[in-house]
Amino acid sequence: xxxxxxSLLALAIGCGSEEVVELPAxxxxxxxxxxxxxxxxxxxxxxxxxTGLTMGxxxxxxxGEAALVQQYPSVGDEAxxxxxxxxxxxxxxxxxxxxxx
Length: 101
Known about the structure:
By secondary structure, the protein is mainly α. It has six helices and no strands.
């Protein structure tokens, strides 16, 4: 039992990483629709943009929309991503105009 504990402890210490992961800045509330429109125009999904967009949507209180954005990489089809992003842009614009916080 002692051997297992020591082995696990050594593994945990040896696998420790001091690498700092820097997150992109959240997209500002005023730029949410423009960022989504950019995705809708290209159908291209960049992980950094999606992370910042997700953080911005969450900050604006749009949790469902943030979850939807996180699905884009798994869609795979650019045409479908464009369609989803166009609809999301309309929904976010409407909610922001209504004053969703």
